[in-house]
Amino acid sequence: MKTKLVRFGWTIALGIVMETMAMPLGAQEIISEPSPSVTVELDQGTSLVQVQEVRLEPSGPGLEIILVTAGGAIASPNLQTVGNALIIDLPNTLMALPGGQGFEEVSPTADIAFVSVTQMNDNQVRLAITGVNGPPEAEVKPNSQGLELLIRPGGAGTTAEIEESEALQIVVSATRTEEEIANIPRSVTVIERAEIEQQTQVYSSLADILGQLVPGLAPSTGSASQFGQALRGRNVLVLIDGVPQTTNRNAFRDLQTIAPSAIERIEVIQGPTAIYGDGATGGVINIITRGPAPEPFLASTRLAINTDFDSVSNSLGGMVEQYVGGTLDYADYAFTASYESVGGFFDALGNRIPPDPNGQGGVSDTNSFNVLGKLGINMTDEQRLQITINHFQATQNTDFTVDPSITAIAGRQRSQAIDGLDLDTPQTSNNTVVSLDYSHSNVLNGNLKGQIYYRDYLTRFFPFDGRASVSLGNSIFQSEIDSTEWGGRLQLDTPLTEEKNLRLLWGADYNNESTAQPVNIFDPVTFDSSGGLSYRNTGKRTWVPSLNQNSLGLFGQLNWRANDWLTLLGGIRHEQVGLSVDDFTSLGGNTVQGGDLSYDATLFNLGGVVDVTDNISLFASFAQGFSLADVGLVLRNAPVGFSLATLQPEAQRVNNYEIGVRGNWQNLRFSLAGFYNSSDLGTTFTAPGEILRAPERVYGVEATIDARVGESWQLGGTFSLSAGEIDRLNTGNYTPLDGFRIAPVKLTAYVQHQTTPGWQNRLQLLYSGDRDVFSNNTVFGQLPVSSYVTLDYISRINVGPGKLEIGIANLLNTDYFPVVSQLQPNELSNAAARGRFLRIGYMFEW
Hints:
Blueprint: E1 10-15, E2 30-31, E3 49-59, E4 62-69, E5 78-82, E6 85-91, E7 93-95, E8 103-106, E9 112-119, E10 124-131, E11 137-143, E12 146-152, E13 171-172, E14 179-180, E15 188-192, H1 193-199, H2 206-213, E16 236-240, E17 243-244, E18 263-270, E19 283-289, E20 298-308, H3 312-315, E21 317-327, E22 331-341, E23 366-378, E24 383-396, E25 400-402, E26 417-419, E27 428-443, E28 446-460, E29 464-466, E30 475-495, E31 502-522, H4 524-529, E32 537-561, E33 566-581, E34 584-585, E35 591-592, E36 595-611, E37 616-627, H5 631-635, E38 652-664, E39 668-679, E40 684-685, E41 691-692, E42 696-709, E43 713-726, E44 735-736, E45 746-756, E46 759-768, E47 788-799, E48 802-809, H6 819-822, E49 837-845
Parallel strand pairs: 1-4, 3-7, 16-19
Antiparallel strand pairs: 1-12, 2-11, 3-4, 5-6, 6-10, 8-9, 9-10, 11-12, 13-14, 15-18, 16-17, 18-19, 20-21, 20-49, 21-22, 22-23, 23-24, 24-27, 25-26, 27-28, 28-30, 29-30, 30-31, 31-32, 32-33, 33-36, 34-35, 36-37, 37-38, 38-39, 39-42, 40-41, 42-43, 43-44, 43-45, 45-46, 46-47, 47-48, 48-49
């Protein structure tokens, strides 16, 4: 049974009650997600019980809800949680309220958004209780007069309010099986739907949200790219419902593949892992899409407008989000559609920020659309089939570009925008993911899960003037990455003992990917005569030919709950990868001989968790991750006489060591972890767009804390400190890794207050420190970095049938430059960050 902390209490009493007396409370077990049906043994042979009255009465800090019946026992209830709702189905029961209507109450407490009591079609009454920050909890106890349930609101997210109980057990699936965080021997961060909604009151970018909430992850770059937003100094593998979003020609736009409106939950594993195969040398970001509502039909609508304070008309944007979902007898469905229009961005001085701020893509002046569809069928009590389709599209339609005249001014200059851009092929990102999932809960006495998937991806960059580079064909060009992939996963979680304290997770993954990087070539005469504003397409060329890659991974993972205080895990994974490339001619005119490459890697992991007390646990682990070389990046800069056979085909293997402690008390929880990872063949980018393969090591410390003070205050934060070194010449002489890999110290903090039962306020801070560790600080990625602090304000107020949302980002209008801007020696990429901006929204269910 999984339990979660709870905060306030209110009672639902079912059965026969007296006018002047509520029934006594009892507590036998606590129900939480994921929650199977819960049955309490009662007399099932009674006639239909009629509910004649529903009462809501104050009870301490919570609320007592009483269902008055006409006599007779109520049969055993079934409880389940879906999203933020707790559903209690009462069989053998009829509604008999005056007028023949059901019962509804909006926001009876600050932590309960909605309570309804309705009649179903099969002589069943349903109580639906929706929590503000998470699904409520239920303690169930039989009673001679009926049934008692003590309902307590649940919490959400890693920085949500701390609830009262004895333990916090959050279940994550990023480990490929549902495991409680308390039993995972490494750092894990979980962000629930309620916290995603809270953060989108100020930020619409997933990179901004994760940079604020995830320790070890560098702050957002302020652009469409996550190049420079490393996790523990290395690359991250992004998954959507288990489907990988990273291509073998890394575009660093994996977080611009889905809108937050389509996300139910985000699980982050910090540190290298091979649990999903290639790419997770820094960790895994597992995005889980929104699921169905527990009732037959539920709809929610969210509307918002946003604007910068300094230029309302030029920065005005808006968003609309619609969700529809429900659960029927043997099927369930979910549909989410969102559209967002983002205006221009302005810095703290009132200057328009170039729409391509760092030369890696921008998010200003962008229209984005996301649609998610999900249909599930429970074929039997043990078998389920689900199909999911998610499509995301973002297109930047802008009349502005970077002003090239600032390069003629001496000294370090702030990048500026200029009007008049004429470009028929704008920056865009299109991502379509289709997956079919099958599960069977009783195969070899274990759980079988299978998945097949297909992904179609396109991202197009802003044009680049490469006329000074022979390897770029002395041309002005615009590249795009086109990728299609398909694959499948099959795994079985098999208990090896009758007590199921020893389990074996085993299975196989297969992936087939085809990725290319063509370019549009532009007329230099038109470009120069327009002052760098007009681009006339003269044809297409191949920059990176089609990279046809397939991989097969076989794995096994043992999980042993040795006793009440010790959990041990250990596993192995073997990966076989094949890559095929045709002959081609580079932009520089060099003929490159293609061919076939093969890779293989066998990786191990071992870890354990020791429960020192009921509140404190220690964990330690060794884990290996790996990533394949970005062959496309090497091929596009291939010199004369280059052939594929001259590449180093070995995968980058990263060894990671981590030790940490977790604490969990009634009003406080914290974590502290230290890590060290190393690789003999690191993959570091250099200024010409090449990769340096050399030994590397990265190490650091991370901490989190969340506390509740009194009934109305919550506060907490995270701390991240890391360092990294590289042996460029493989001589044993290590020098610091560049700033794109190693972020400065990061500190986040928040304070949240329940000002009134219907009004919640939050202030959150992000501090990014200094970093100046290079003797030659004029090289790409090695420039000194200055610190900055931002403060955000988030407020939510119950107004009418819904909630009014107010968010102000960069509340103090701090004038600062993102770390990636400060690391760029090119003045055109030294763009300031966005100044103070406002978002006002309204959300309601119907």
